[in-house]
Every structure is written in structure tokens, then in C-alpha cells.
Amino acid sequence: MTKRVLVAMSGGVDSSVAAARMVDAGHDVVGVHLALSSSPGTLRTGSRGCCSKEDAGDARRVADILGIPFYVWDFADRFKEDVIDDFVASYARGETPNPCVRCNEKIKFSALSARALALGFDALATGHYARLTDGRLRRAVDSDKDQSYVLGVLTEDQLATAIFPIGDTPKPQIREEAARRGLAVAAKPDSHDICFIPSGDTRAFLGARIGVRRGAVIDGGGSVLAEHDGVHGFTIGQRKGLGIAGPGPDGRPRYVTAIDADTGTVHVGDATDLEVRTLVGERPVFTSGAPMAGPVECEVQVRAHGGLAAAVAEVRDGRLVAELRSPLRGVAPGQTMVLYRPDPDGDEVLASATIARADA
């Protein structure tokens, strides 16, 4: 059945091929580029940055080749409020947020999707590496590029109008397809790191917005090892840049094991101090639309790539609690935990939540 499909076109190879496949499928396709910066740069810095004039131009040229209408929609104010400001506030609280998760939750599949539906579109397509089967969100075929984790916050209703056209294809084949289609973005570098910090210097970005909030770095015995200018410069599991002189008395490296934003205290310890076995998540989202009925065996992922452990999860007092079969290290409040049901045909996303606590 022919649908009116809005395709989010970033100017990269993935969304470009996604748009092309929607056209091939016979849908009525319109491309849209999201202007997420109030002062976009003229050029990208290699694979860093986004929303540049170069990216918008690349997306427009692809749309011209495909023969589809193309628009640029300004979401800069919404992006600043829901993603950038949230990112800064989270770090100020001593948390470690994932801005890509928040962008998908608040911008692409909330603000953008809502506007698309209001304008009469039937679906929103993106270049994410993930698959949908009967409304169920699954991992992509290309495990190295799988983005189901950052989509794990989507609701049943949001998934019902989403399309991920490239999730069934490995990335190298996507580039080959783009080249065959004559798309100049075929060899364009992938974006990485945090899109709104093109310099890659997260500490400087946060420092300019949070300011100096001095505190102490202390060890397990309470000894002050160093002073710092703000907890926003640290994350759980961090080893370098602690401002302390060398390893611990036992000669082992020291890591950030806890952050207390109220007192400005950064705790450091041994690697084993990072191990956690229980995760408690707030604001759970269930991709089926309904909470799990009792404990379920699953796998929990706490980072976009890696941080995976078998677990038993259930809802307790409105929170999502996962008891891990084996410990994970470096888990911080503010991270997103995503629950998967293992499946040979592609692990299925069951639920997600923002980690409020990680206990040993």
C-alpha cells in the first residue's frame, strides 16, 4: 500500500539510501533536513559535528537526484531545550546522559513525528540501523552499526508510524548501493561523538555552561587526593584526567567510582569497586505498550555499544529493576538501560529506563 512518507535526511549516506528505498517502494516521499543549530557551521570537521550547511546541501542534492520535494525545518530551539540543556543539567547533577537517546525520544520521534502526522504523513522513515517486525523493535543485521539501543525509548505508538529501511543491510553494502545510485555521499565519513560538540572537548563545553564548582577527589579511606573545578568533568569509570598523582598504593590504576554533585565530591577506587549487579531505572518505556507481567529473563545493555549482561528484570513500584547474572562495570546514573529478549532472528527490545541507581 502506498503511503505518504516523510524521510529525515541528515545529509549522510544512511538516510540518503533510506530515502531512495522509500522511493523505490512506490511511496509518496518527502525529504526533510532538521536544522538543530541556531548558528550552523559552513563545513563539517571531518566526521565531527552535524547540522552544517554542508550537510543540508548534501541532503538537498540527494533529494534532487531522487526527484522528491525537500524542506529544511528549524528545530533549533526545541533541540537546545530538550537535548543540549538536558545534557548540561544532567552532567551538573553528576550523571552521564546519552544525548542521542534524548534526541530520538524528544526530537525525531516526538516533535518531528508529531508534525509529520499533523501534516498528513502516514509514517516517518530514518536511516537508523534497526528493524521492525510486526511492530516489534529488533537489532539490525549489522551488529557493529546496530542502533536499536538509542531507539529503545520509543513507545508503541511511535514505533507504529516508524520505518527503518536499511536495518536489514550491512553498512558496507549501504555505501555500495549509494555509489551505484550515483549519490555523492557514498563515501562521506560517519558522524561520531556528540553532534553538538564538534570540537570533541566535552569538558570544555560543559565548563563554559556550568562554570567553576570546586570540589575534592577522595579515595576509599577519605583522603583528599586532588581538587577539581566541577563534577561535570568526570564520569563513572573514568581513569584518565583525574588530577591525581599516579596509581593507588597497591600500584593499581584508580577509577572514578562515585560522584556526589551536592558536595562536589568525586570518589575514586579500584576497578572492582565499579562492579554493579542491580540496576534501578526511572521513567520506564515498554515497546509493547504494557508493563511486563512479572520477572522476565533478558539481556540488559547500558551503552550504545557494549555493556551487555544477562539479567532478570521486573517492575517494582513503577521502576524497572534488573538483577544482573554477571556484574557490569562503569554504570552511571543518567545512562539508559535497554532490555532485550534474545532471539536468533534479531534480539527484540522489550523496555528501557533511565538509570537512577546502580548497586553492587
From TrEMBL:
GO terms for molecular function: ATP binding; tRNA binding; tRNA-uridine 2-sulfurtransferase activity. The keyword Transferase applies. GO terms for biological process: tRNA wobble position uridine thiolation. The keyword Repeat does not apply. It is found in: Cytoplasm. InterPro entries: MnmA-like (IPR004506), MnmA-like_C (IPR046885), MnmA-like_central (IPR046884), MnmA-like_central_sf (IPR023382), Rossmann-like_a/b/a_fold (IPR014729). This is tRNA-specific 2-thiouridylase MnmA. It comes from Mycolicibacterium madagascariense.
